[in-house]
Design brief:
Elongation Factor Tu (Ef-tu), domain 3; two-stranded antiparallel ribbon; globular; 2 helices
Amino acid sequence: MKFELEQIATIRSPFCELIDMPVQPKGAKDVYATIEFKKEFEDGLKDLDGFSHVYLIYYFHKVTKAELSVIPFNDKTNTQRGVFSTRTPVHPNKIGLSVVELVKVENNIVAIKGVDILDGTPLLDIKPYIENFDKIEGKVASGWMKSNQNEVSEKRSDDRFVEN
């Protein structure tokens, strides 16, 4: 089945190169950015400003390849992993997901904080984080991922997913 998605907005961030960026929002907790929505989607932002966090679903527009096996940035063992067990950008559909802090909504501009996204990234959708729906209770497992919060915060991208 083939289908099309429409870009609803553009993410404007301070990151203009794919190398040396934070690889997760945890490493960009103090980074601010804006999302510029197309005017025809502005009415859809009504009532969003009551939420503290939002999910951003976006397209990795600078990624040119897909791989099924990768060595993720935060894998301490440098082991090849199945791409679907990672958050690398080289998934077959090149879709990204981030949870960011919502700072302000003004007209068609949404200010956000905690951004690990390349400038100019097309936004496909935005959804509110709702603690009563989204918070995981009980035992949580992170598979092969063993890096602690500090290690994740300090990790920066290199050229492993950049086409030369």
